[in-house]
Amino acid sequence: MKQRIDQIPAIWFLFSSLLSIFCLGIYVWGGIEGLAWKEISELIPQSVSLFPESNTNLQSSIFLVRQHYYVQSISPEFWPILLGAILGIIGLALLGQFVQSWAKISWKQIFLGILIWCGIIFWRNVDLSAMEWFSFLHSPWVMIASVAIALLSILSSSAIPSFLLEISHSSDKVSSQKKYMGFMLFYLINLILSMGNLWGFWTSTLYVPTFILLEISFALGMARSLRLEEKSQQKLYAALFLLSHSILIPFLWNNNEVGIRALESWGIMTHIAMCLLFPVFLWTNFKEPIQQNLAIYKVIHKAHFIPLFLIQIGVFIVCVSWVFARQGTAWHQIVAAYYNEQGDVEHFGGDRMLEEMVYKNAMIHSKLNQKSNLSLARISQAAGDVEKQAYYLQTSQIKYPLEKTFVALANIYGNENQWFESLFTLKKAQQLFPESAPIATQLSRAYEQLKQIDSAAYYAVMAKELAPKSPMNEANLLYFDVHHGSQLVHKDEIDSWSTSSDHAVKSNLLAKLWKNKQALPREFNQEAFAVQVDVRDFALLYNSSLYFKGQLDLYPIQEWIKDPNWLQKFPEITFLDAWQDYYHQQPLRALNKLDLLVQKENESKAIEYRLILQHWKLALLEIKAKVKIENFEQARAAIQSYPFSVGILQQALPLLHQAKKHQEAYQASLAAVQWNEELAEFYPMYIQEAFQQGEISYAEEAMARLKKLDPELFQSYTVTFAKAKEKAINRQKFN
């Protein structure tokens, strides 16, 4: 048991170090942003020769993919708040142990007091849901954690000076003093540089950020506290450490930057004050040991004349005065951070009105804080309030300009058809972020909307130069070449991009080569792929199907059509269904589907489909197939592939009758006549099939039609028709 107890300080040090490293990692990474890039793809129709292999000059549309950026608002995440709550509960438990040990209160009294307090709170709020309880308890937790982090900053402000004192100790007094004075001077200069950058006095990169110094001091302070013999002080420091990090984790992850800045402001004050007072503290208490070059860092916490806690109280008084001498900036920042944190919790509770109100309360204390503005912009975007969204985005970029904020604003103006405002916003953004490829992409789009094609092409090329490995920029250059006749893509780039796995690039590349009547590179891959409900996938599927025709693999298009998402996003999928049927041995079904589309579509599209329909029908009539048919299966397959071949029908229909498939034989002959009403050669077969099916009136109408179309052919079948009619009449009498 004693061995396990002795291991506790080491475990606490390891845990606290990992927690500090975790927070430092989030700080360096930056946490989640309130805005995120999202690629948007548009389908742009492009006219090409649909059947270049034939004499017809039938033009039809394929699709180009034009891409740009959309900025999506990001909601906060719940797990950091939940993790913080768990750490907070552990911290409060340790704090309770410290209070019990310090005040000499029995556990029975503490437990009874907590039980009564919880009972009263529960009785007064019995109707609250689980999430409402969490929100209710979250508010005091954030307050306690904020106080804890303020106290921890003061208690740990001496950790770095103590550590510097320890590592500067040498074998002789002069060397020790020189090292310590050098380390402390360097530390103080870094603090001043950090303070100036934090408060906007100057801009420099030659300093260690304040937050990193704070985490280092927290970890060192935790390590030093574990050396203390009094366990209650260890529990106090551990409790403050856990409570502090219980709020730091959600602040950092959900990018509550105003809270981090408040902590940094308070921390930089406490560290500067301690840096100035610590040498005085050392000299006052340890003048003789210092002159003898003793290792005084081992007994700092046992000062004889001025205890360290009195120095820490002095630091607290100085820093509080300093805060309010700066018009209470750090105070207003931490209050704004508190409301932002409450707003995040209300977001998960689902009360949008309360969530908006809490974020607005945060703006009362810090109008320009980014967290509140972006959160309110997210709420406005969800509500469809474009004006409010634009206002909050503009406010957020006054102090913290971001590429995404400018692009989001430009998109709002563009959606309202205010393209000049969009262009001006993007030009301003380019001045601040000249190396931004997304801004160059958006400038290209804005100029294109304003019909300034040369400028649009210029910025498309710039975007490619700024992000040479981006498939979006490659696809956009190909789009400009095809749609606007630009010459932006070189031959070596075509060969290189032909191996691209990006579907927008492949689709636009295929369109470019098709329009220019160039052969596909050998590396161009035309294999089937898993199609998602995505514009880029649809463009590649559509263009590939039209280009490769029967060479492309079959896709389950009929299943996709049943999904409303497909029809809503890609209504052309119905035409593609007919196209695939035609080039995969289902031509008659394709003709019927396309005929329905002709009746449904608008006039211009109906004309295009009608021309394709005529081309298909003529192509089927021109086929002179020589197929040897020996059984029913071969007969059915032959009719399916060559529905308008007289020779095939003459061979296949008798085999269908032998297999007792009389209705199929009739339907095959009927389809041939319906699609070729002006061709007399199909009528004799249909008339005989109609008589066999007992459709005497239909057969007589067809005979009259045949007599007008080709009297000689009709005359040659007169006897045959008469016998077939007599048999049909006799069957009816018998029935």
Features:
two-stranded antiparallel sheet, 72% helix, mainly alpha, elongated, 4% strand, disordered N terminus, 735 residues
Tell me what you see in this structure.
By secondary structure, this protein is mostly helical. The protein contains 34 helices and 2 strands. The chain has helices at 2-29, 79-103, 107-124, 130-155, 159-168, 173-198, 210-225, 231-253, 257-291, 308-325, 329-349, 352-365, 370-383, 386-399, 403-415, 419-432, 437-449, 453-466, 471-483, 491-497, 503-515, 535-548, 557-561, 564-569, 573-583, 587-600, 603-622, 632-641, 646-658, 662-675, 683-692, 696-709, 711-716, 718-734; strands at residues 35-49, 59-73. Strands 1-2 form a two-stranded antiparallel ribbon. Helix 1 (2-29) runs parallel beside helix 8 (231-253), helix 19 runs parallel beside helix 21 and helix 28 (632-641) packs antiparallel against helix 29 (646-658). Residues 1-7 have low confidence and may be disordered. It comes from Aquirufa aurantiipilula. Keywords: Membrane, Transmembrane, Transmembrane helix. This is Tetratricopeptide repeat protein. The chain crosses the membrane at residues 12-32, 78-98, 110-126, 141-168, 180-200, 206-224, 236-253, 265-284, 305-325.
